[in-house]
Every structure is written in C-alpha cells, then in structure tokens.
Amino acid sequence: MILVGRYLSPFVRRVGTTLHWLNIPFEHRPLSPALDPDAVRPYNPMLKIPALVLDDGEILIESSAILDSLLQTIPDQMLLPASGLARRRVLQQSGIMTSALDKSVAAVYEKTKRPKEKIHQPFLDTLIAQAQAGVDQIEAQVAAGKFGGTTNPTIADITAAVGYTFMNAMLPDACNAERQPALAKFAGEFEQTNAFKACQFQV
Ligand SMILES: N[C@@H](CCC(=O)N[C@@H](CS)C(=O)NCC(=O)O)C(=O)O
To answer: Residue 144 C-alpha to ligand 1 middle, in angstroms?
Structure first.
C-alpha cells in the first residue's frame, strides 16, 4: 500500500496513524497538491490528499472512506464498531472533528492563498468560528469521558488527537490548551504513542 500526502494534512495523518496503530505496513509518499501537482495528479486528478493505493493498484480517496474500507477488512478490529449505536457514535464524533478540520483548512487557505487585499475578513472569521464550534464540542465530549483515549481508542479518538495538533498549530487562537484543556491533554497522550511518532506533524 502507498499513502500519498504529507502529515501536515490532518486527513492524511489520521490515515497514517491508523495504519501504524494497526501495524499495517505501507509506503508513505509525502507529496503536496500545491507543491507537487504533477506528482499528485496520477493518484487523484482533483489534486486532493490523502490517496491510498491498494496492493492491487486500486486508488482510494477521502479519509473516511479510506478508513472504512481498510477497517472492514480486519476482523475483530476495535477502531470502528461494525454496526449499531456504537458505530453511529464513533462516526458522529469523527464527523464533528473532520467538519471542524474542513473549516480549519478552509480558513488556512483563506489566509494563505489569497493576496492580502483579497482576504475577506468576515468570511475568514466565520470559518474560524465554525471550526472552533466543532472543536469545542469535541472538548466537551472528551471532558465528559465519551472518548476511549490511548488505552481504548476508536478512529474518533485518533481523529480528535490529530485534529487538535493541527488546529493548535494552525489556528492557535481558536484551539489551545486554555480553551480545550481536556482535549489538549488527550492529544498530548496520543502524540507520545509510536503510531503518532511515526507520523510526525510538520508545518
Ligand atoms: N474530505 C477530505 C478532505 C481532504 C483535504 O481537504 N485535503 C486537503 C489537504 S489537508 C487537500 O488535499 N487540499 C488541496 C485542495 O483542496 O486543493 C478527506 O477527508 O480526505
């Protein structure tokens, strides 16, 4: 298997850390759609990462679909329950964090991809507020003990931890240890695991 995309992307990193968590071997190609478009295009003509090339050559995109496809091939895995309420909860928790990350990435692009005079501050403020509203919900759930943590993780735990590290680095006013103390501690514990250390976040 080949995972395409840099661990700067929380979407790539949630796939990479999950693969490491499960000890699934893969090759990592840290390509950037912005910096290496010609190299990314064969994996995804829409120039989005992550892409995962399976051993038979099939290419999967979209981190949630990638994780779902991978996990359903592993009997008795505990990262995503197979059905029922438990599965719905994990998918919803993951969905809140990935939505916050979508808004965070959009905010970063709004700040970095436009000439300064073309940045529309009210739109940027809305994106950041939306991202913050998502991560605040995750903070409340972590504080209430609704996540498993490093001893009993699901893909929602991995996504929450990856998401905190990304948002704290990229949008520190919206996401920081004062505002989300339970999530900050939780993410810090995940960052000490071998799976997370193998997928270092780098700006
Ligand atoms: N919903 C997608 C989001 C992926 C995503 O937004 N990737 C960003 C990097 S963090 C990207 O490829 N951006 C390039 C672009 O949109 O042009 C997923 O879960 O995989």
So the answer is: 30
Query: Interhelix angle for 155-170 vs 181-191, to 10°?
Result: 110
Whether the Cβ atoms of residue 161 and residue 191 lie closer than 8 Å to each other:
yes
Mutate to test the pocket of ligand 1, among 105, 110, 203 (most ligand atoms within 8 A of CB): 105
Domains recognised in the chain with CATH numbers: 2-71 (3.40.30.10), 84-197 (1.20.1050.10)
Residue 63, ligand 1, Cβ within 6 A: yes
Q: Measured from the CA of 66, which atom of ligand 1 is nearest? A: 20
Q: Which pTM was predicted?
A: 0.98
- 47 touches ligand 1 (CB under 6 Å): yes
Q: Is the CB of 105 under 6 A from ligand 1?
A: yes
Helices (H), the chain: 10-21, 37-40, 63-71, 84-112, 121-143, 155-170, 181-191, 194-197
Mutate to test the pocket of ligand 1, among 48, 60, 64 (most ligand atoms within 8 A of CB): 48
Q: For residue 203, what is the enclosing H or E element?
A: none
pLDDT in tens, the chain (203 residues): 999 999 999 999 999 999 999 999 999 999 999 999 999 999 999 999 999 999 999 999 999 999 999 999 999 899 999 999 999 999 999 999 999 999 999 999 999 999 999 999 999 999 999 999 999 999 999 999 999 999 999 999 999 999 999 999 999 999 999 999 999 999 999 999 999 999 999 89
